[in-house]
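Page 37, top half.
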Amino acid sequence: KHLMHRWAKTTLETQDLEESELELVLRVVDELESAELNDKYRGKANPTNVLSFPFSAVTPKRLPILGDIIICGPVMEREASAENKNLEAHWAHIVIHGVLHLLGYDHITPKQASSMERMEALILKRLKYPAPYQH
C-alpha cells in the first residue's frame, strides 16, 4: 500500500500536481472481476493487467477526483514471470501507467504511445526502477 501511494504520488508530481489535492481509487482484483470489467467496458472477455476509469461529472466546479485504477494481481504475477521482470518494478510500472491514463495519456497512436512510454520511463527512473520497454 505504501509503495503504491509513492508510485502514484511521484507520477502526479511529474505532472506538477499536488497529491493532497487529488483523489484516486486503486483496487487489486482477481481474474474473474478483471475479466468481467474488461468485457463490460472494453468488449474483451479476458482478464487484463490494468483498467483505468477517469472520473467525469457535469458539475459547476472541478472535483478533485481523478478516477479508479483496477489492477489484476494474478495477471501481474504471470506477466512479470513470463517477461522475467522484477515483480515490484512491474507493479510500479503498471500503477504509473494507470495514473497517466487518468491524467489523459493514451497509447492509441504511435505518437501517443511514444509520449506515454517516455513519461513512464522517466518516472520509473526517478523511482530507481528499470525502464519497462525494450525497443
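Page 37, bottom half:
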Amino acid sequence: ADTHIIHHAGHNAHRDNPAAVIACLAQILAS
C-alpha cells in the first residue's frame, strides 16, 4: 500500500515540481 501511495504521489508531483518528489520521499524515509 505504501509503495503505491509513493508512486502515485511522486508521479503527480513530478509533473509540476520534480523537487516535490524528493521532498515526499525524504519525508517518508524520515518517518
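Margin note: DSSP finds two helices and no strands in the chain.
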